[in-house]
Amino acid sequence: MKPHPKVAVIVLNWNGLADTSACLESLQAITYAEYETILIDNGSRGDDAGVLGERFGGFVRLIVSERNLGFAGGCNLGIRDALQRSPDYVLLLNNDVTVDPHFLDELVTAAEALPDAAALCPKVYFHDRPSVICSTGGRVNAWTGTSRQVGRGEEDRGQRDEAAVRDYADGACMLIRREALERVGLLDEEYFAYWEETDWCARAAEAGYRCYYAPAAKVWHKAARSQAPDSDFYFLFRRNAFLFLRKRKSPLHLLSALFLYLFAFGPFYLIRHPGAIRRVPGEARALLWHFGSLLRLPRAAAP
Fold it and tell me: What is the fold of 7-221?
C-alpha cells in the first residue's frame, strides 16, 4: 500500500445540526492522515450552514445547495467537487454516524488489498445499542424486490469478523475507489433517496467490480434520523425498490416482485401489523408512479 492514499470524506447535512456536529467531531479525532472533509448543506431550512461553517470552518470544505437534492444529488455535488482534486477514494458518510478513530485506516488498508473492490463498508453498529450490529453490507433478492442488511440486530460476538463480498456496501458509510467512480459513474439521482447505493453497486458489479465488507472498521449509526417513516418515506422506499428492478434486473424479476408484494408480503404484513395501514397511501402512490411511468404519464415529483 502506498503511504496514505488520499480520501475525500463527504457528509450531507439536511436539517440535522446536532447529528452533523457529532459526526464531524468524531471525524476530527480519527488517526488517518490524508483526508479532507466536504460538508454539503443540502437545502436546510434554518441557518445550519452558517452555524456549521462557524463551528467547523477550518476543518470542512462547505458547499451550500439552495434546495434539497436528495441523498444521491447531494452526494454527487460533493463527489464532483472532490474529483477535481483527484483523491484515491471517496467516502460517503451519513451525518448521523459517529466513527471509530481508526475506521478510515482499516477501510483503506482493506481496499488497497482488494484491487477488484469498487466499494467497501465497515461494521455498522446501532448508536443507542453500541454492541448490536446494524449492518455489515447488504444482500438483494431480485425475485422478491427486497434487500436486507446482513447481521442486523445481532449482538456482536465475533460472528461477523470475516471480510466478505456483499451485493451492496451500506451507504451509511461507503468507501469508493476513484477509478470505479470514473468507470461506473455517479449515483443515479432519479432515486432521490434510498436504494441509490444498491443501484450503484449493481452497476459496479456489471462493470466487473465487487463490493466488500471490512469488519475491522467500525462506526455507529443513529439510523433513519434524516427522515422519519412518513408517507414520503414509504413512497420513496417502495418506488425505488421497483425502480431498481426496472433499471437493473429483468421483467421477470419485476413481475415476480410485484405479484409477491400485492398478494403475499403486503397483505400478510398488514394482517400481522394492523398499525402499518399508515404505509398504504405512500406505497400506493409508489405503484401509481410506476404505472404512470410505464404509460408515459407525467411522473410524480420526488418529495
Answer: Spore Coat Polysaccharide Biosynthesis Protein SpsA; Chain A (3.90.550)
Kindly state the average pLDDT of the residues 248-264. 96
Find all residues with CB under 8 Å of 181, minimum gap 6, and list them.
79, 83, 90
Report which of 146, 145, 150 is spatially closest to residue 212, judged by C-alpha positions.
150
pLDDT band per the 50, 70, 90 thresholds, residue 296:
low
DSSP 107-131: HHHHHHT-TTEEEEEEEEEESSSTT
> DSSP 3-state helix, strand, coil percentages of the chain (rounded to 5)?
40, 25, 35
Identity (one letter) of the amino acid at 72? Answer: A
The CA-atom distances, in angstroms, between 172 and each of 9, 13, 85 are 12, 13, 24
Angle of helix 231-248 relative to helix 251-260, nearest 10 degrees?
Answer: 150
Given a contact cutoff of 8 angstroms between Cβ atoms, the answer to whether 238 and 266 are in contact is no
Phi, psi of 24 (to 5 degrees): -65, -35
As given in the structure block, the three cell numbers for residue 45 are: 431550512
**Does the pLDDT at position 259 exceed 50?**
yes
Residue 247: pLDDT over 50: yes
- How many CB atoms within 10 Å of residue 102? 15
- Quickly state the pLDDT bin for 276 (edges 50, 70, 90): confident
Q: What's the mean per-residue pLDDT of the chain? A: 94
- Strand partners of residue 168: 138
Contact 155, 202 (CB under 8 A): no
Domain residue ranges of the chain, discontinuous segments joined by +:
7-221, 231-294
Taking each helix axis as running N to C, give the angle between helix 70-83 and helix 196-206, from 0 to 180 degrees, rounded to the nearest 10: 50
Strand 164-166 and strand 210-221: pairing? antiparallel
